[in-house]
Write a structure and sequence with these properties.
Blueprint lengths: L6 E2 L4 H10 L1 H10 L5 E2 L3 H10 L5 H14 L5 H5 L3 H5 L5 H16 L12 H9 L6 H10 L12 H11 L6 H11 L3 H12 L2
Helix pairs in contact: 1-2, 3-7, 3-9, 8-9, 10-12
Length: 205
């Protein structure tokens, strides 16, 4: 079965010490949990497809669908995915809407109407602006690409249910408000992505 290249999000003592000093509650949790690894996909196209697969489903479900795609389609490349039908992709375990988004995106990359490599040199906000202009790519998907592929350092997503749940568990919020979220997000800056990695871990406890 084809394998998509992965690595771990690159962070170290500098980011952890900063966050512990900025937020003592998070700091205690970080000491308790130790280093938390976050797998990322360095290839922009594969990472975007994985983010689409992960929309509105659990991590476990997303990984299952991803495995089926690798088994049934092969390498996750624009060329491979643009040559198969929406039905083939849907039968890997996703909705037809997602399958259509994936085939359309793949064809646009092959045709040269979308240049993903340009994203590396853009700011976070410009990456988000460009990606959300693509049908089927929303803010959450763009933010996941920023963390889980581009390893941008300061991304905390309100749209991510697990991050919000992690904040609620960490701080004892009965129901996280947007104001509470923004206060925490600002406290984590400029290393919000590392905080997100820990919040994801905390959310599953």
């Amino acid at each position: 079965m084809p394998i998509v290249e992965t690595k771990y999000f690159d962070y170290g003592r500098k980011e952890m010490e900063y966050l512990a000093a900025a937020d003592s509650v998070l700091g205690v949790a970080m000491v308790r949990l130790g280093r938390v690894e976050r797998e990322v996909i360095p290839d922009l196209f594969a990472a975007m497809i994985y983010a689409v697969v992960g929309q509105l489903v659990s991590v476990r479900s997303a990984k299952t669908v991803w495995t089926h795609m690798l088994q049934n389609i092969g390498d996750i490349t624009p060329e491979n995915l643009s040559c198969v039908s929406d039905d083939v992709i849907q039968h890997c375990g996703m909705t037809m809407r997602k399958a259509t988004v994936i085939t359309t995106l793949s064809k646009k990359v092959v045709q040269g109407s979308i240049y993903l490599s340009d994203l590396w040199n853009l700011s976070d906000q410009e990456v988000i602006r460009r990606l959300t202009a693509i049908k089927g790519i929303g803010l959450w998907t763009a933010q996941m690409l920023l963390i889980n592929c581009m390893e941008r350092p300061n991304v905390v997503s309100w749209g991510d249910v697990a991050i919000r749940r992690g904040m609620e568990k960490l701080y004892g919020f009965p129901k996280l408000t947007r104001d509470q979220f923004e206060i925490c997000k600002n406290r984590y800056s400029p290393y919000g992505s590392v905080a997100s990695i820990y919040l994801w871990k905390i959310s599953f406890f």
